[in-house]
Please model this.
Amino acid sequence: MVHLGRSTAFTDPFDAGLLATLAGVFGGVPLSLWVAGRQVAIERADRERDEAAVAVARQREVLGLIREELVSNAGGIQTRTLSPERAFVLPLLTTEVWDALAASGELRWIEDPALLSVIAKAYRWVRTNIDIESRYLDATHYQGMQIGGGESGSDRLKRYASELDDAVRGALSEAINVIGKALAVS
Model:
């Protein structure tokens, strides 16, 4: 075939190559961008799923440690209140696990504010109990503290501790129960 002013020997392959290149650019580039976008989305979803699994595992671990300490404290309160007269037993109740988790930032894994509030309330009561028991032990070992009305410091502290036992026991029980429910859900 002869065209005026142009050679088909050159333009036919050129036209075919140009057409293939344009088809590759206009079809292949969007396709490769779409594939790359899908790959990024899949990788992001995988990473988020892995992070969520880590968060659930860490929350379970943190709640398990807290629950263990609270159960131990509940047993300590039970031991103290078995006899008709409130006993003071060493060791004192503990907050070491809670304190360590708080100091290290591990409490961030507990994402439920209501759950965290119930646990914090239980620890507030435990700390109150620890303070009263510590003061009682000081008052009984270092005589001399007297309260108006003839009541000794140790007697008053014993009364305070006895009056608080139900609140401490209730707060511990509530916290242990909500942790149990949270662990059952996750």
